[in-house]
Amino acid sequence: YNLMDNQILEIKKTGAKKIVIIGLPASGKTWLAGKLASKLSLPVYHSDDYLHHGFEDSMYIMQQDIEKDNPEAHIVEGIAAYRLLRKAAQGVFDYNPDLIIMVNRSEDVRRSVYENERNKPFRSIAGMQKTLDKILGEYLAIRNVKVPIINFNNI
Fold first, then answer.
1. Integer Cα distance of 111 and 21 in angstroms
2. In the Cβ-directed half-sphere of 48, how many Cα atoms lie within 13 Å?
3. What is the DSSP secondary structure assignment for residue 146, as one 8-state letter?
């Protein structure tokens, strides 16, 4: 086993069936969702894939798909997954994950992913982490839920 296998084993032990994976762009959310999906036999909803429906409609359509297909067992990942938590905090959706995973990578690694793997220019997103942390804090406070949060660093 390596560190990743040990962390996945720990996640498996929690019995979590509704998992949200959040983090900055190019932090490894999609990669981790794929690994977890294969180990836990859970479907993955890539929140960013819904953005083609438009910024406002994307979360509603994804939530409808989750409710229709796999309301009790799934993984949601993507930068837009924060919006799902925000909508739940606002009372728009009744959504409570069993587990939230925060994926963190250094800016240098994220820059490398953009430039070498995605062939896109990297732009530093100053202040974005603060905004994302605020959304998560609002969700936890307003929903008044105790959701375990696991950090994956530099995957």
1. 20
2. 11
3. -
- Say what percent of the chain tops pLDDT 90: 32
Closest CA to 24 of 146, 95, 99, 122: 122
Cβ–Cβ < 8 Å for 77, 27? no
Mind listing the pLDDT tens digit for each residue in 70-83?
999 999 999 888 88
DSSP annotation string for 87-143: HHHTTSS----SEEEEEE--HHHHHHIIIIIS-------TTHHHHHHHHHHHHHHHH
> Tokens 């925000």, residue?
86
pLDDT in tens, 47-63: 989 989 988 888 899 99
- Identify residue 155 by its one-letter amino acid code: I
Provide the token pair at 5: 């296998």
The owner of tokens 């995605």 is 118
